[in-house]
Records
---
Amino acid sequence: MSRPRFGLALGGGGARGFAHVGVLQRLEESGIRPDFITGTSMGALIAAIYTRTGSAAATNEELNSLTESEAFERLGMHLINVNGRGGESFWHQVSSAIQDRIVINLAHSKEGLVRSERIQAAIEIVITEDKWTDSGMSLGIVATDLYSGEDVYFTEGPLLPAVLASLAIPGFLPPIHFKDKILVDGGVSQQVPIRLAREMGADFVLAVDVGQDIYPLTEMDNAMAIMSQSENIRSCHYRDMLNREADVLLLPEMPGVHWSAYDQRERFVQLGVEVFDAQREILNRAWHEKRHPFLARLKNLF
């Protein structure tokens, strides 16, 4: 009987995706190297870097170089502030209202708030070659077709447009026009790419979900906040349904942490380590049973 193949599915979540690095560190220490590594959004970027470097430490180093670069600063992540909307003072309320009006006006005239050349210049810092396989590990990336709503899988070809498409947060980053499709963030249709790992041939899938829980980041006192929270509830229910398809699911606890909190990336790496340690026994048992099903049946019998 052939050895079962191990799949690692890394979900999207912006800065919270740094928790994936902590999981990769622990997998290396456990001697587990995935046969397949799939990624959505930030998970796609990390999976692509890990496939090229083959090291969690090197992946973390490159991610830090990216987030500390001038090109990344020009994306304006540090200007996003979702906490305290409404504020305590009248002038803070006026300032927030003006900012919202500017965003709405831009949304009617542009595909995204960040220009495409800026996000490409930043991602080119770490995506330097089209490497989809390394030492028996294969990479897969998920994006979403904006017209059909279907998952679009990338497992070969130019890597940069695949990563950019999977990262294209609707409204914030512009969609990617690739061949005959218009592609946006893979998290729109598959927050954690478990199904892609299965389709690539994984018999066992460890999934890491760093998405936002149902947790209001603002007071529910305006239309934008109400619409955002309603969409969050809908997407969380769909994500939870898909997550049941994993053999083992890791859920780092990050209540109320926005996807743009890149200043907390060291903390997120540690959260990835902690959630792996908390679930290590469950993972080891499930992976052992997958590799030795006959022994597992005997154990359950007696």
---
Amino acid sequence: MDASFIEDYKDFLKNGKTERECCRQIVGLSEKYGYKDINEVEALHPGDKVYVTKFGKAVALFNIGTESIEKGLNILGAHIDSPRLDVKQNPLYEREFLVYLNTHYYGGIKKYQWLTQPLAIHGVVCKKDGSAVQVCVGEKPEDPVFCISDILPHLAQKQMKESAADFIPGENLDLILGSDIPPVRGADSDKSDSAEKQEKDKAKKLILSLLKEQYGIEEADFGSAELEIVPAGAPRDLGFDRSLILAYGQDDRSCAYASVRAQLEVKDVRRTSCCLCVDKEEIGSVGATGMASHFFENAVAEVVARMGAYSELCVRRCMNGSNMLSSDVNAAYDPMNGDLYDHENASYLGAGIVFNKYTGSRGKSGASDASPEFIARLRNVLDQNNVRYQMAELGKVDQGGGGTIAYLAAKYGMYVLDAGISVLSMHAPWEITSKEDMWQAYNAYKAFLLLQ
């Protein structure tokens, strides 16, 4: 295992807690490897390397091969969004001398896990004059952090009787931004209600003045902002042996990073290779930057057009003839909750990249069921390259399940298989992965990109 690869991965996680931050890093890294913005390229030939972006939140990298693109691509497809809290459009309010930021959770979370965590604010505020203010507060040692409060155990008798899904309503996942000192009780008791209201708003006004002073942001600017609440802090080695990584957003930025590095470092490909990093997977792959959009198809069309033989039929043949690994994570076996897993069909930390023939839930609902012929070809190439892999499912059949972007790629007729990294505590603010699995995934993705 290359220790520098792992440290680079941890830096990627540290500096990429939103889709925009990940996309910027991927573009910057690709440019160091000679990739160019496709809008600056008029024609493409074997050996050329280009990238296509959408709204700064999705990116596709292409390494043009010597074989006709009509025969298809080798594609690594991952997503770079992660569960989090999003800031609402009218978020600031003051209640009993505490100032809060109103949020709406994004993706599948256990809401109670986000209470009392040190949290940071990342994102962008777009102003009417066309300028954009980049926001990142809570990551530097000198920065303040933010937090969602919880009830003390002494007063939590009712809360403790409720289910985990219910005891913290989504509307209560609001961050504390600041506070004011309440007036002394009994003093100035003849104040009018309006004067008292003005006094209560004082803390909110102070927060707004600080935002204006430090960022040039007005309260109305929240209406055109994209601000995300994420755990504050950097990835850490986990365990005395330092074999594991504890970090936010490893679903699915672990697979995205391994895919990007594989794409950048594989040279002289016959089949054109592609690394696709999309948004919105955690909420159904919707929107202009999700896999359900036409982003990827449009990007392929732009590449085909610059190769001098554009036709809709050529694009369709390219998509239909492609191979794809849906680079997404799988649930690692949890010994503390072993009854949720089929032991013989579970994935284990440190056992290598995971092949998941089908995802979906219960009766394979929503699954993309991979072709055994394709899996056999992958097994062969990985064995030839001494890459460790394991075959697994997400959990026991009746326990639930999950989905990936695989079924959205499969609709084009291409071969698709889910292949990613095992994650313990998936969708928690801090997730656990194995360094060995990261290394094996990276090598597996490199071997796949050379598949004929």
